[in-house]
Specification:
Layout lengths: L6 E2 L6 E2 L2 H11 L4 H23 L3 H20 L4 H15 L2
Antiparallel strand pairs: 1-2
Helix pairs in contact: 1-2, 2-3
Length: about 100
């Protein structure tokens, strides 16, 4: 028996044999290069982690870190025209296509 790992697009559920292909596909959905998409994912993860940290230890340093990480993420999204409505439209469009 052979084990096969597949990767699924987070938005349209298309399957890929490599994580690199899947990430490149997802990046194109947002009109980003692979490097830009990976940077955006890292910024999102940093913001999520900073938000969690400030709920555990609520102090000025953690509040400053949350503010800084969200400013960085929002600046990136603004630079690349990644508005909430654009992101929601992409997710919704591919959700409906995948459910057909």
């Amino acid at each position: 028996m052979k084990e096969v790992t597949m990767y699924k697009c987070s938005y349209c559920n298309k399957l890929f044999s490599s994580s690199h292909e899947c990430l490149a596909h997802e990046a194109l959905m947002f009109n980003l290069s692979l490097e830009e998409y990976e940077k955006w994912l890292k910024l999102q993860e940093k913001a999520k982690q900073a938000s969690f940290n400030v709920t555990v230890v609520h102090n000025e340093d953690n509040i400053r870190i949350v503010d800084e990480t969200y400013r960085n993420m929002l600046a990136f999204e603004e630079k690349h025209n990644l508005t909430d409505s654009k992101i929601a439209n992409i997710k919704q469009k591919h959700f409906y296509e995948a459910s057909r």
